[in-house]
Amino acid sequence: GKMGTALIPKVLSNMLTCVQNLAMGEVFMVGKRAGVDMRTMFDCIRASSGNSFVWETGGPMLMQGTYDPSFSIALQCKDNRLGYQIATKHRVPIEILGHAMQAYNRTMYAYGDDAPCYSSPRMLEEALGCGSQV
What we know:
This protein is an all-alpha fold. It is built from six helices and no strands. The protein has helices at 7-33, 38-46, 53-64, 73-89, 95-111, 120-128. The longest helix has 27 residues, at 7-33. The N and C termini lie far apart (46 Å).
């Protein structure tokens, strides 16, 4: 294919991960505030249609409070910007990613460029005074 074609699926995958991570953080907070045991909730969703690679890998990180230190928030934000540029070039509106980009930028500004890429749920945890940790 054309030069750079392999980059597009990688960026699109990271965009999807970004959106799933934000939703996962909200799900954890709703469950926690509703009094659901975090491990039980994780296992139930893992065995249902809500399961995903992000749930299986990121969920345990949120419950441990590590937020995936292997990939920085700055790199995730860079991929989000690339995804936005690709979508703009091809005239595809990306409302959900637009919201996710704002959330990730806020996270990067709050915690710094080297913060783990799954740190956005941490902002919600801190705002609510309630962590996802088990």
